[in-house]
């Protein structure tokens, strides 16, 4: 009698499911396409679920998933799985980030060549009985400049292939170091430098707050006349309306999309344009990639159901139950500290120094380091950071990680301190757990503070003098933003001080600018945790 039932959706490769089928205690059930209601009705029976991108694992699904322990994504992007709901229900989410790199890379190169030589349009004409040699004068790739935005697994694999095609590469990725790029023979550029020189532009980053509509009107306006753009990453990175406008007026000579803001999509106005080509999210659709990702995710589901450490966890680090009891309360604090610092620090980060003090000094702190590094890399990377790959992932991006323990905790029972070192300086933040495991930030760059790392926050270093706090408060009032909490820390009267504010809503660029202009305010940073 099988102990665990695993629901496999979205046509995941049957052959790749062998690791699940080999386990006598696991029963595999292949599900057909379901509506949310249908899924909600059956999910209560399952211990695990495997999906690609079609099935949406929503908070409602998790609410009804009383036995669910793990959801596996046979691929990289987990935007179809509600990670917060998964974490709240204690469900592990795992993915398979390596198996489809080559498939997505080759699809990108195929799109670039198809764009350059009008292959899809020529095929369509021939199939309509027209031998039209004149209409399709193409361009060569050799000697052209390819702008790559996002130099991760797929971006760098695209770069290597484009170099073999004798293209010049310029790349933008704020989270990798010059050295790392240089080792690939690539010079990093800013977007302002990349847009005007690139003949082709391809994007390879996750869809995040930062990358959403990165190629918008403003970006297209900066691009070279006759540019060709490709998106085989995520819909929404290119603003489709702006693309349409610039294709229509002729500045963009061609575009190839594998992904759309809304999917499935067969009614985009872009499809009416001759020089626009598209595929229905086929980047990962090769026999090899589908086998790879299915095997990876099936193995991870077995590991998770058997209580073992899992390779690619997306939401919570996978650790043994004994260690989990001790470190669990600190994971959230550590993740928040990492996320907080990622949004505060400026420049290219080269090192994270993490110090564990007080009660933590004798504990197994590695998972806490992982949670912290995960928090730090999360706003930047699509992929899973876990305690096997965290250090490696950071290292691949030129960031070294040092973990030390220290008995003294500055009067706190335990303390986690994260020093982030970048080419623009360093920033140190410490956090602790108050009663009932309540996470707090208690020190920023040596200034004592007591802030709850949650929701929307503002970090405002300023000169300690009258008429700072009042005007800041007034300004929020004028912009109709409620202040939920305020903390000020200083070392000496009249010197530098810092203010931490918790607010109930996101703060606009305009409000941030107005705060920065208040006399005595040195800087203002918005942080979302
Ligand atoms: N079309 C398809 O079927 C497939 C799409 N994908 C998508 O491709 C994308 C890239 O995947 P991987 O290379 O495996 O991920 P990765 O995590 O290895 O690389 C992402 C890169 O984007 C960079 N990045 C993050 N924020 C950035 C920003 N604001 N500006 C510039 N760069 C930024 C990161 O530093 C990182 O180097 C993901 O969105 C993934 O979901 C992946 C596989 C198949
Ligand atoms: O499973 C698929 O076909 C899509 C893969 C993908 O987009 C990803 O891995 O991020």
UniProtKB/TrEMBL annotation:
Membrane-spanning residues: none
SUPFAM superfamilies, sorted: ACT-like, Formate/glycerate dehydrogenase catalytic domain-like, NAD(P)-binding Rossmann-fold domains, Serine metabolism enzymes domain
Record bears the keyword Amino-acid biosynthesis: yes
Reactions catalysed, as given in the entry: (R)-2-hydroxyglutarate + NAD(+) = 2-oxoglutarate + NADH + H(+); (2R)-3-phosphoglycerate + NAD(+) = 3-phosphooxypyruvate + NADH + H(+)
Pathway: Amino-acid biosynthesis; L-serine biosynthesis; L-serine from 3-phospho-D-glycerate: step 1/3
Protein known as: D-3-phosphoglycerate dehydrogenase
Entry similarity comment: Belongs to the D-isomer specific 2-hydroxyacid dehydrogenase family.
GO biological process terms held by the UniProt record: L-serine biosynthetic process
Lineage: Bacteria, Bacillati, Bacillota, Clostridia, Eubacteriales
EC annotation from Swiss-Prot or TrEMBL: 1.1.1.95
Residues annotated as domain ACT: 457-529
Xref: InterPro entries: ACT-like_dom_sf, ACT_dom, ASB_dom_sf, D-2-hydroxyacid_DH, D-isomer_2_OHA_DH_cat_dom, D-isomer_DH_CS, D-isomer_DH_CS1, D-isomer_DH_NAD-bd
Highest taxon above the source species: Bacteria
GO MF terms held by the record: NAD binding; phosphoglycerate dehydrogenase activity
